[in-house]
Amino acid sequence: MGLLGGVLLAAGASTRMGAVKQLLPWKNSTLLEYSIQQLNQSNIDHLVVVLGANEKVIRKHVNLQTTEVVVNPDWEKGMATSIATGLRYLLENTPDIQSVLVALSDQPLLDSIYYNKLIERSLDTENKIVCSAYSDQFGVPAIFDRDYFDSLLNLDGHGGARALLRGGDIKVAKVHAGDLAVDLDTRESYNRFYELHGSS
Asked: Which of 53, 4, 16 shows the shortest CA–CA distance to 32?
């Protein structure tokens, strides 16, 4: 597979949450720090975190000194611009990466064990994309081979990589995420899952 880059998306404004979602408590840190920790414990070679909205507040409250960070000035245009920003940064700084894992900072039930399952699947399949499957849908976290870097750099809109994952003519390998693929988009969902999984 060669070198594997990682792009952690943390640029959104989290308007539905009513708070800076990346800074919400999770276990002994925050959602963002926990996601960074899990990705760093996986078999990714080079991780970059993409910030956008609330960048200054996040930097003030999260220690990012040991983490590569890039800011997406166009974060309001959607997740696709953050994917492109992160991938562009990786290609400039690690030009020989052969694939990239795209992950979200608001899926804390997905840990390093799960990320490594995706990575292992990418090693034993001929398919150039490996994605997460949940609720009869394909989504991120997902790994994209270098063959799809141009497509990722030219994605458009708020759907992120979904259009690419759900293209009918593209062969995609799947890893079933099941109940782990929870997006914490509202205060209600955060409170519920924090009580179950994030408070200790």
From this structure: 53
pLDDT tens sequence for the chain (200 residues): 689 999 999 999 988 888 899 999 999 999 999 999 999 999 999 999 999 999 999 999 998 988 999 999 999 999 999 999 999 999 999 999 999 999 999 999 999 999 999 999 999 999 999 999 987 788 899 999 999 999 999 987 666 677 777 766 678 999 999 889 888 989 999 999 999 999 87
DSSP state of 194: I
CATH number of this structure's domain 3-198: 3.90.550.10
Give domain limits for the chain: 3-198
